[in-house]
Amino acid sequence: MKIVDASPASGLDLTAFGSSGVRHVRIHAGTDGAVSTGVMHLAPGGRIGRHEAPVPQVLIVVAGEGHVSGADGVPHRITAGQAACWSAGEDHETWTGNGLTAFVVEAEAPHPAGILGRALTGED
Fold first, then answer.
1. Quick one: how far is CA 65 from the chain centroid?
2. Which residues contact 83 (CB under 8 A, 6 or more apart)?
3. Is 122 a residue whose pLDDT tops 60?
4. Would you say the C-alpha torsion 103, 109, 115, 120 has a positive or negative sign?
5. Pairing assessment for the beta strands 12-13 and 83-86 based on DSSP bridges
6. Any idea what the Cα angle at residue 20 is, between residues 13 and 5, rounded to 5°?
7. What does the pLDDT read at residue 86?
8. Per-residue pLDDT tens for 80-92?
9. Which of 24, 27, 60, 122 is the most exposed place for a label (fewest CB within 10 A)?
10. Is 6 left (phi over 0), alpha (psi -120 to 50) or beta?
């Protein structure tokens, strides 16, 4: 086991796509590029600028609140305990007035055995 620092201090400023007030901490990137995980720390007023998802993505808010939008550009409020899911090729963005922390997973396809051996069903 390895414990890593996932605090904003360990992250890098994310400025791509016109983003501002964002610190990105890469947690894991598979050697084949199939799965990538990280933590996004958005300061008050922070924004991950509009961009296309290269693979399916999920942003799980673990603290704070903000807004997300997908291909239609319509803002949706998102709070701790909620997740936004985007399809490959979908334009999307995330922003906050008061700050938020989110765990991000990017994966071409989930592992067939699922998480902890629990395979996905049509109900998941």
1. 13
2. 58, 59, 60, 61
3. no
4. positive
5. unpaired
6. 35
7. 94
8. 999 999 999 999 9
9. 122
10. alpha
Query: CA 56, 62, 63, 64: dihedral to nearest 10 degrees?
Result: 40
Tokens of 14: 């994310």
- Cα–Cα distance between 43 and 55 in angstroms, integer? 26
Cβ neighbours of residue 52 closer than 8 Å, sequence gap 6 or more: 89, 90, 91
Q: Where are the alpha helices (DSSP H) in the chain?
A: none
Instruction: Using the Cα atoms of residue 50, residue 28, residue 82 and residue 53 in order, give the sign of their dihedral.
Output: positive
Does residue 120 have a pLDDT over 70? Answer: no
Dihedral sign from CA coordinates of 28, 57, 14, 78: negative
Q: How far apart are CA 3 and CA 1, in angstroms?
A: 7
